[in-house]
Amino acid sequence: MTRHCHKCGWVWSFREQPGRSESCPQCRADLRVCLNCSLHDRSAAFQCRDRRAEPVAEKDTANFCEYFDFKSRAWSGPGGANSREEQARATLRGLLGD
After folding, report:
1. Mean pLDDT score across all residues of the chain
2. Pair 63, 35: CB distance under 8 Å
3. What pTM, to 2 d.p., does this model score?
4. In 3-state terms, what secondary structure has residue 11?
5. Strand pairing of 2-4 and 11-12?
6. Are 33 and 6 in contact (CB under 8 A)?
7. CB 2 within 8 A of CB 72
8. What is 39-87 written as a DSSP string?
9. Max CA-CA distance within the chain?
10. d(CA 7, CA 3)
11. Within 10 A of 81 (CB to CB), how many other CB atoms are there?
């Protein structure tokens, strides 16, 4: 399990957490974002499991959340965290002949 950029999969190899202004050297996406946080959960209120955290509107842009913890995971590609969505899109493409 490693820590990756949520957008392109570049591996964050440093021990410390990324700062608010840190960005991925490959795709320039912000790294300190909800989508990279271990507390991010689409089914939780405000999509965060920590009740103390302030709600963040844009989950893919840098924020000042003090509870950020860079998620360790196996990289499964962009959007891989929501395989149900990808599966539904593939089924729809199949039905429409795309």
Report:
1. 87
2. no
3. 0.72
4. strand
5. antiparallel
6. yes
7. yes
8. TB-TTSGGGBS-TTSPP-S-TTS----TT--BPEE----TTTT-HHHHH
9. 47
10. 12
11. 15
Residues in the chain: 98
- Residue 80 pLDDT exceeds 70: no
| pLDDT at position 34 | 94
Tell me the helix, strand and coil percentages in the chain, rounded to 5.
20, 15, 65
Tokens of 69: 């913890």
Q: How many CA atoms lie within 13 A of 23 on its CB side?
A: 10
pLDDT tens, 55-66? 999 999 999 999
> For residue 51, what are its two tokens?
């009740």
Contact 1, 73 (CB under 8 A): yes
Place of tokens 């440093």: 14
Q: State whether the Cα torsion 11-14-17-19 is positive or negative.
A: negative
